[in-house]
Amino acid sequence: MNRDLAHAATVGPPATAGPPAIRTRTAVPCDAEGIVRLRSAYVLSEPLSEEWIRRCTDELAPRLTLTGDARACVIDAPDGSIAACALGLIHPVLPGPTHPRGLAARVQIVATHPDLRRRGYARTVVSALLDRLQTEDVTLFELHAGAEAVRLFRELGFADSPALMRMTRLANPVEPAPGKGARVWLPPTEYAETVLKATAFACVYFTDEDDRPLQLHSTYSPSHPWQLAGGTLDPGERPWQTAVRECQEETGLTPAGPPRLLATVYSLPGAGWPYSTIGCVFDGGRLTKAQIRGIALDADEHDEARVLTLADWEALMPPRDFGRLSAVAEARRTGTASYFDTWDWDDE
Known about the structure:
Helix content: 10-25%
Oligomer: single chain
Structural class: alpha+beta
Mean pLDDT: 85
Distance between the termini: 55 Å
Order of helices and strands: EEHHEEEHEHHEEEEHEEHEHHE
Largest sheet: 6 strands, mixed
Radius of gyration: 36 Å
């Protein structure tokens, strides 16, 4: 591979023989915008918008490196802009006798500024590009020639082919990538794949008539032995519906509405669970001694219901579980809902 991207190559007769030689150079990433603007202004039937020029520039620039698949030769204009360019894109094909390395290149752009035409610039940049590509074992070249350029490309060795057929099929209109000050709206289903995934739960906070919290002893979670009545939302449920259903299933109690939110709980994902978790804790009110005695536990989930003071609960619970219980109790006491966002799965 030719790694001399910085030096100009001289094509044509020596400077002492007739007119000055036309100097070409291999394009580098900072030439991408100039190449794109030449294509937009003088090759395409309809010029690109500034947003599409930016997008094409961002796409082309990294491909003009040694590890990229784009090669271009340019001629500089006196004012520092690009007077002419030829851009080729390398792509793999199945190998054959005329392309044993399985490499082909499509000449995507040949453009010259109108004020600088009739000087041999197009012939020069295309010849330089073909020579440059051949040093990288590209031996099969393709292009789509306009009527006015057919003669030039035939003279350079290209043969006509009646087989060229083209079609564009887009499943959805392609929107430009967002730039400064621009916004692209994805279809809802695509956007949904980019946002945070979370599970949700809802539970009920009961106390006895002395405001001592009621909790259930878990049969399946030794890391969270004492829990409020509640569980994970089922599809189609709202948090209060879940709280009522889970409470009925786990205790036989039906909390009276309307719902009163005591706390919102949030946990980051971690080793114990791969998603964030958001929870709602509702006030179930104060239970009488008879209601507490009448609790019917689901033996598959809990084996004991207990009422204790906060001080007694602290000795039986992991610190973060007790912190959540304390926040809920304080919310009941003050009448101000709590936001508890440190119940994280990595604290398992």
